[in-house]
Fold this protein.
Amino acid sequence: MKLSVALVIATAAVMMFIPSVHATGGPAPTLSTNQANCFRNIIEDGDIYCMMRYQLPTFVTATPPPVSAEAWCAELVDQDGCTSDPVEPTNETSQIIGVAFVTLYQNCGVDCSTGTLESQVRTPRINYALGGAYLAPGHAVTWGDITVNGCVESSTTLFTVASISCIPVTWNTAATDQATQRSQLGADLVGDLVSISADRNLDLFAYVQNNLITSAGRVLSLEALSVMDQIIPERFQATIFESQDEAFATPTGTLALQADLDATAAGTDLPTAFANLGTILFGISGGAMATLFFLMLGIIAFFRISGMTGDVTMGAQAVVAVGMVGLYARGPTISVLAVAAVGFSLVGGMFLVGKIKT
């Protein structure tokens, strides 16, 4: 009973930090899609990934600072910096949930009003930024189809008049093998980041230095595709994985499973949602937020199951089970879960040894 009450209180406390979705009651601010490049076979054979460079303007006043938050700054939960000179929002990712999307359409009419929606994910941030649409194998999009458009658009329900900007995607002409497509993705990513640094009036080397992506550029890259630094690690100045001379096109063992899980996660909005939640609540990365979330669920399951069965080993199994669910949201990785399993095995072994009568 005490545990249930504590869980309710903890849930209520977290919900206090999550913004409510509400209609603005007016037309959506303007926006624009500046580039849309598509690649294939980058994670699995038959997949398609379209990377889009876009802008959600932060202000409209000709001579800053504005009196109050304007344009897409007004759609942020945290509006610090929206009335400064120059306008520089401190938390560009704290958008109201569901306010704008990066989308991919097929069979587009004018502004894709009659197109077929193939992908829709939340815009990672306002200002000049990168987004992406990942289609897992089995999708309905035909490679090279000239009717496919990449778009950035506002919600059609939170505004009285929606905004949308679409451009035909560019199908790259590089060889179709995974290594070549990944190489082309890396080259285009570097080019997009250089363009964004110029659009934002930043230092020339803010996002790319010596043709390698900096830590600031990594943030934008992972917002476009959550596994970007894992499939093209050689493009980053420093990665959590050792750079490889050869692309791991056909990984084996644990890497193959992790790649499949990453591909599944990339096709959902969960990594971006955890990234936004982590930034808003604690200022941490999406992976850390997902791991923390499932760790909390695991701890609750541990005490609940242990209390019901009187066996801590059953509680430990519950923690691992919750962690396995978290794998599909890129929370704890396989390696982290494996280490946790070994740790719990040691605890279980000590428990059994303690039961042996001497």
